[in-house]
Every structure is written in C-alpha cells, then in structure tokens.
Predict the structure of ABC transporter substrate-binding protein.
Amino acid sequence: MTLSRRRLAQATALLALPGLGLDTLAQRAKDTLVLGMVLEPSPGLDPTTGAAAAIGEVVHYNVLEGLTKVTDSGAVLPLLATDWVSDPDGKTYTFKLRSGVRFQDGTPFNAEAVKFSFERAKAPDSTNKAKKTVFENISSIATPQPDVVILTLNNPDATLPFRLGEAPAVILSPKSAATTATQPVGTGPFRLDSWQKGSAITLVRWDGFRDVAAIKLRRVTFRFINDNAAQVAALLAGDIDGMPRFGAVQAIAQLRADKRFNVEIGSTAGKGILAINNKKKPLDDVRVRRAISHAIDRKAFIDGVLEGLAKPIGSHAAPTDLGYVDLTGLYPYNPDKAKALLKEAGITGPLNLTLTLPPPSYARKGGEVVAAMLAKVGITAKIENVEWAQWLSGPFKGNFDLTIINHVEPLDYVQYANPDYYWGYNSPAFNALVKKRAEASRGRAQVTLYADIQRQIANDAVNAFIFNPSQVAVSRKGLRGLWANSPVAANDLSQVAWQ
C-alpha cells in the first residue's frame, strides 16, 4: 500500500495533538515513547467494571497489577503474589503476597486489599466481565496474615493463576477504587498523567514504584488511530514509535521494506465473529443462523480483509487453546445450502437485516465483504457504521441484528452460559456442559468437555465464526520489549526500552 503525498499530509495533520509537542522520533528523548492504539478505552479506565479490551491495553501491568502476570508467551509469573500453591483437589489456592508494596495513593497493599477487590468483583451489582468465570466460583476468602490470602473455590479451576493475571482481576486500593474509571490508582510502575478524550492518554513513571530503577521509560503516550491510512502515516512521519496491534495489514510489505521499522507477526486468543442476535426473529431460528454460517466464505474474508493473516475457526475457540477442535468443516461455504435453509425456515423473500460495524478495519472492511456474501443468498444487510462508544451502548447491550467483532479474551466460552450477554443465547444443554466442566477434575475430562462445549456452540450456530487473527506489531528499530503475541490484551511497558 503506497500513500499519496496528499493523503499522507491529511492523515498526519489529523494526528496533530496539543500538548504532545509534535516532536519526531529523532527529537524525542530515549526515555519517552508514543504508541498507536486502534480504539480508545471506553467508558473509563477501570478494567474491573468495563468490558472493553482497550482499557487493559493502557492500564494493565502499567498502572494496575494483579496477583499474577501473563507473559506474551502465555506463561504465568508471580506479580503481587510471590508464590502460590493449590491443594490436590484444585479447590484451594494459597497466595503469598509481596511485602512492602504500596498503592499510588499511599495505602498499603496487603491481603485485605485483595479480599476487598475480589469481593467487589463478585458483588451482586458488579459489572466485572470475569464475575461468572472467576469470582462467583470463589466461595470464601481467608486472610490469616497480612501477606497471605487463601481462596477456596466452589469448583476446581486449574486456570485460576492465569485468570488472576487478566485485567478484570487487578487489585485496587479500597481508598480509591470508586474513582478508578477516571483516576486509576494502582501499584504499577506508571501513573495516569492526562487523558485527552478522543486523542491520547499519557502515563508517566511513578517514582514510588518498588523497583523504579528497572523502568526505563519516563513517559508513554497512547494515541488513538483507528483509520488505516492514518496509522501508516503516523509511523512514516515519526509521530508514533510503534503500534502493537497494527490494523493496516495491507501496508506490511511496505513497512517491512523500510529499514526504519521492525514488523513482527504473532498469535492471539482472538475470535473474530459475525455476532447474531439470537433473541430477534427470525434469527432465533437455528436454520437461519446456520444459513448465515454457510453464506460466509472464511478464506475469502481472511485473504481479502486480513491479507491472509488469520486462521479460520468454526466455534468460539482459538487454535492456541488447549483442547481446541477444528470445526470449520461443520459449515463450509455453500450458498446453495444457505438458500435451502432459509427456504426451510419459511423465508421466501429478501431477509432485511442491519449489520452494525465498530471502527476497526476488520469490521468496517470486513462488513462490506460479509454484506456481499449475504446478498448472494437473499439476505440484505444494511450497513451501519458506529463509533466504539456507540457499539458498547448499542450492540453490546443487545440492540442489533448482526455485528462483526473480535473477542480477544482467552477461554471466554462461559459468556455463552449468560442469557443476558449481548447475543442472547440461552441453552440448558450448553449450561449443563459448562457446569459439568467446572466441576470436573483436572486433565482429560476437562479437555474432553471443552471439545463438547465447542461443538455445542457450533451446532447451535450461535454466531458465525470466521477468524483467529494474527497479531501484527510494528515498531521503530531500536525499540525492544513490545509484545509479539497477545495471550491477553495488555501492553506491558515495564520491559520496554530503547537500545
């Protein structure tokens, strides 16, 4: 992809932000960094109450920390906990906490802060997206010592250390938890400096961090750029130093040929889907949903929209998951089969639906491709483009027909057991499988039941499952430490530095 001079100038002009100095990479100090992000966090910066993955991309591991940390390789390491052990039955975990740690508001980090955070996450009015998967499974929280927390679970969970390394499980200060959305206060190496709504968020190094000498960056700015051309323009002009989740995949060859940049292709836990509102007629008919699945040519979507940088999927699971089953053969691209299923469901004329698309290019560009595919089988999809905040207040609240979205959270199949989740799926058979897996012992039974869960979701064609995206990370030469993979949605700045 080659940008015209006019478009380059227009895109660069759009990125001019007051307060950032508009300095080029050559002029910026080696302890500062400017990164691009596709989406702005919304509605705030509290990952324990908001569902948007973009929240964690800014604050997780940087401002707010949890008991454990998930690395870009998927390994689980100690963070605010120094160690942990579990009983043989997998229902009791004992965490030894790091001592001498304080929150940025001066309050001590201790077992009581952990108990407060987890009880807040499982409270009846909690909107924590891990409430059902993690916190409702905690039957009791014991704090026998200031540096010891004992979690007793209703059902064994071998993934708990991983789950506690995700953004919804960060530990908050009881003193300032209520204002985390606007003024996050954590134990991490950075603190919030400013948030220019619609433009950028800036973090600065916190001098009170327990190992501040190891933090090489003094100032980091996240700039929100969802337009593909503007992303490329910002990199070429030196207005940003990198973009960990680069959206303009059509420009990869151009950037790889430019000696100023590194381009890395990694893996993610993402599930790119055409989400279907299971509560709306006629989408509540499984035959209609199966018809939609047969209408989607996954390979054409991946090649045309993502430049081939994705793997096809057939259920709500990523190929990196332990126990992943390839179910793409269940609904192969077959327009004739799709037409027959629609006819069987009693739909004889054009089926008119609205396809609501958030800003990322996989959705906006992908929406045009999907609409054309649906048109071939008699489904007219009227495209409605919305901003991210509108998507969260509309489709994510259940107000939609169809939408395209990439679910980045790992192992989030439990959302299908929530009838109030935005796609409105309600299956006693599926719920029974989830319960059975939660209660199963570790090992083969867990893997077998996960395969059954994937098949149940696919058989019911809850959504049309399309792609598991690769991660494309672009950065200036000399910058090291950015994640090449995204097992969780985070940008761990503690390891990032200029050489």
